[in-house]
Amino acid sequence: MEFETIIGLEVHAQMLTNTKIFCNCSTKFGGAPNSHTCPVCLGMPGVLPVLNKKVVEYAMMMALATNCTINPSNSFARKNYFYPDLPKGYQISQYAYPLAEHGYVWVETAGNQKKIGITRIHMEEDAGKLIHDENNPSSYVDLNRTGVPLIEIVGEPDIRSPEEAAEYLKRLHEILVYLEICDGNMEEGSFRCDANVSIRPVGQKEYGTRTELKNMNSFRNVQRALEYEVKRQQYLVENGQPIIQETRLWDDAQGATNSMRSKEEAHDYRYFPDPDLVKVIVDDEWIARIRESLPELPTAKRERFIKEYQIPAYDAGVLTADKALALYYEDVVRLCGKPKQASNWVMGDVLRFLNEEKRDIRRCPITAKSLADMINLIEEGTISGKMAKDIIGDMYQTGRPPQDIIREKGLVQITDEGELTKTIAAIIDANPGQLADYRSGKEKLFGFFVGQVMKATQGKANPQLVNSLLKKMLAP
Ligand code: ADP
Ligand code: MG
Ligand code: ZN
């Protein structure tokens, strides 16, 4: 039997505000346990939450960037459940009236563009963290994260493969980071994803029973977990066994998903409007102001790079994957006016150095000015491309401009025709046998003469000039 895979993702993204969503406590990661808490986020009786306006604005930015419609009036609801990391016994979230709905993003796999729908984006508070002690029969509760602002981006079940799921996630992640409203750190949990997956025989209209996967902390693991789960479900169906609607945890070491709990239904949560918070009224003027403030988004930047700089789509993709890298590249181009050369050096050596050290482009020791100078020095013929390959390593290690390194190492390229002519003449004189062989048709010997010139000049001779002079002087 042939199956079709159906995937829908729920993404939680932590908003980069300084303070929590309903109180003034810090949102900083870490800190002594329970040091970032107050009566409001500890859920003491009688306290009142006050909505952080910045959270609404950040959520609106994401909503507009993903083509959602913002609801002019939206409101908060209580999602009731018991867990020791949730002191109030309910999570403040949005339910019947979310901030935004009906959006989409474009996703590309194997050269095909596809629209993936976004059902809704809503605001909510995060829960705390439980820490289990392996040596003691005890667990600890840290409520620093309680009340940290999140948005949840609920996706339509439009995704048809684990690979497409990973691409969709990368697009959402990229947009959030570009907007500077989320740090995107998957390991610290600032960007996390629950993946819902089901299969159905090709041609069947109804969806199959789905499972929900959690605990994947990288794009790669989301894809792996989904691949595993699709196989597991196929095996069950092919063997006449039922698929149980449940939440399953990804185990990285095992490379498998394991059942965690049966899935709650929405009615289990007894959602009801939170009486402590007023409606959020969003007028057109506010939306226009937020729209106005949006930076250029990744897709638009990618297209502009291809058009404006005439670089391949591949280059544009790499260079715009990180907003700071795109900025760096544009600085280099502005200073040297050579977009393709700039792209080659940035994507090649610069990124390789940075990746080797896992260093951020914002802390790159080679400034955009230095790299542009180096490219200009090659263009002017002061140094050869080969010399630049050595110099750039030094530039990265020491942070010095290329001119200093060239001066210190005496690396200036020999472009003086008179000087090179003399060197070549001496070499020809010293090798009469090779000269005769070359002239009688052994053209391979041309390389021998190039090698001799480079040896005599310690690699500093301009290769183009050496070539043209040798052609002239070796000719019979
Ligand atoms: P809940 O809130 O209980 O998790 P939702 O109806 O809000 O359930 O759906 C959550 C996610 O599950 C959505 O992203 C949606 O696209 C996805 N989803 C719904 N039905 C299916 C299905 N049959 N197969 C795969 N994904 C699904
Ligand atoms: Mg859900
Ligand atoms: Zn607080």
How is this structure best described in words?
The chain has 476 residues and is an alpha+beta fold. The protein has three domains: 284 residues, no CATH class; 114 residues, no CATH class; 58 residues, Orthogonal Bundle (Arc Repressor Mutant, subunit A), CATH 1.10.10.410. Helix content is 41%, strand content 20%. The chain contains 15 helices and 16 strands. The strands form four sheets. The protein has a nine-stranded mixed sheet. Helix 1 packs across helix 4 and helix 9 runs antiparallel to helix 10. The chain is elongated. The termini are far apart. 34% of the residues are buried. The model has no long low-confidence stretch (mean pLDDT 93). Bound molecules: adenosine-5'-diphosphate, magnesium ion and zinc ion (ZN). Adenosine-5'-diphosphate binds next to strand 1, strand 10 and strand 11.
Key phrases:
single chain, 476 residues, alpha+beta, Arc Repressor Mutant, subunit A, 3 domains, 9-stranded mixed beta sheet, 3-stranded antiparallel beta sheet, 41% helix, elongated, binds adenosine-5'-diphosphate, binds magnesium ion, binds zinc ion
Summarize the model shown.
The chain is of the alpha+beta class. The protein folds into 3 domains: 3-286, no CATH class; 296-409, no CATH class; 417-474, Arc Repressor Mutant, subunit A.
